[in-house]
Amino acid sequence: MQQEKIGPTWLNSNFPKVIFITVAAATLLPVVTPPVALLLGIALAQTIGNPFAAITPRITHWLLQLSVVGLGFGMNVYSALKAGSEGFVFTIASITGTLLFGALLGKLLKIDRKTSHLISCGTAICGGSAIAAISPVIKAGEKQISVALGIIFLLNAAALFIFPVVGHMLNLSQQQFGLWSAIAIHDTSSVVGAANKYGEEALQIATTVKLSRALWIIPVAFITTLLFKNGAGKIKIPWFIAIFIAAMLLNTWVPVVQQVSPFLVKSAKTGLSLTLFLIGVNLTRQALQGIGWKPLLQGVLLWVMISTGALAAILCLG
């Protein structure tokens, strides 16, 4: 009698967790690429949901940062400085243009001001990290944050598949694709995933340029404080960028580190696959249904603007 009662109860409560853990472990295998890991996450989100919804956002946050730091051990300081300087002008122009166009769209579509600003900042700088940094500055509510994050993660998922295809269709060089993906894809995870799929040189350029863009969170946050007149807001500085730079320095000048760098980079890429899986499982039907068509339209229009504009500029400059 007791066994009959426990059996079905165990299945109902733990079966989704077992499936989740099994698929998550599978993403660590070399045969599972980051795009496939993202698709697996989305598939679970639409079927069994996310049984660990309370902890996966925090795990995703830390795992992404550790993966990015690990990629730093595969980069050279001199190459990174060159890539960063080449993307500097694009960075200023794209961030300014996206924020201004986003504010205009927000007014035209009559979107809540805080939600509109979070979507604009997420598109302009570095996706979820920018939203996490700006939201306490403007004292955004949970609903406003979740809508902005939902849009950014949805478009990130699309970019991971669309950008490499377009890059190959246009025969973009490794340098061109790395720069384009760093500017036009919102979140660091999808930037790294798309660039890694395109090539090693594209990965190095994209990661460096994207992280240099992330530093713009600080001035944008200060400007936001003035616009929203919330002087007490707290700015979250992306500390992991400093560790990423330290990893590059060690890999450039310390021979002992150079010997273990291939292992660290490989581990970082594996961590990225798991990160994208965790991002995918958060795109549940409930999360997507709560977005609303006006904020989604703003996000899509901003993304199309920055993607086409950056691509046209890169192609014109050769």
UniProtKB/TrEMBL annotation:
Its main location: membrane. It comes from Chitinophaga niastensis. The lineage of its organism: Bacteria, Pseudomonadati, Bacteroidota, Chitinophagia, Chitinophagales. This is Putative integral membrane protein (TIGR00698 family). It is a multi-pass membrane protein. Belongs to the UPF0324 family. Keywords: Cell membrane, Membrane, Transmembrane, Transmembrane helix. The chain crosses the membrane at residues 18-42, 62-81, 87-106, 118-138, 144-166, 214-231, 237-256, 296-317. Pfam families: Cons_hypoth698. It is found in: Cell membrane. It comes from the Bacteria. GO terms for cellular component: plasma membrane.
